[in-house]
Amino acid sequence: MEARHLRYALALAEHEHFGRAAGALGIAQPPLSKQIADLEREVGARLFDRTRQGVFPTAAGDAFLARARRALDEVAAAVVEAGRAARGETGRLRLGFIASALLEPLPTVLGRFGRERPDVRLELHEMATSRSTAALVAGELDVAITLGRPRGAGAERLVSVPVGHDHLIAVVSTAHPYAGQPSVSVDQLRQQPLIVAPGEDEPVVGAGLRALLGEDSPALGGATVARDIHTIIGLAASGVGVGLGPSRMLAAPRPGAWFCEVTPRTPLPDLVLSFTARDRSPALSAFLDIIRKNCPDVGAALDHRLGAHCEQRGQDLADS
To answer: What are the residue boundaries of the HTH lysR-type domain, all occurrences included (predicted)?
Structure first.
């Protein structure tokens, strides 16, 4: 039994005449009569009474037609849903991100994605760079925003593009002697109690700051380690010390805090958008389209990376 058999039966019930139903369906009457007869044999019951006044559903026909209408409605709905899914209008997108990406660029990107793709289910996971890289490689995430390019096993299979550039800045209380200054020097920082973020996802008590301030810097040895950049800003505004963090902290001003540049200017690792090269799900493609619209320079770099990956994949297939 095929969907056309259901349509034929419904058309016959509507027009109550083989000729008129055949005309509405755009087929000849004999094939229609044969298809209805074949359908009745398959169902095992007479679906229509043929009378001089017309062709009318039997009790079995009424029961069959009610289900047939629902079945065809479901088929039509399935076609619509398949099209929406293929266009990235439904589905699921799993995004891993470091906390500071919520300052820039995620707010505008997520807001626009939510407005343009309201029926895509967003699963958002705040996680460290190493964890999100492993999750991407394992297929547990669709896309991630990390500090620096992903490293480790499987990272070479990811497509990565910078989505934000940062440099080191300082934040102090408005009551601090440095408040009102446009910048502070590295020498000045060496004399202050510092507040830094932990671990791998922000400027840290690690190689970067040790190289900047000195391997045995007392300021680093006694630094307060904050959970994230929001805590850095809060502690600095409370007068605990001088907070150090990425320039995207400027997107999170708060009363009592003063931001100033650090001289010499010290670049920090980029924010990087990554996804698995083989994953071109419609929901991910829709998200990448939002990135292109919202960040044209990022979109150009993304298209370049995707093009390079496709060329490399084609070469690998040719060599195999």
So the answer is: 1-58
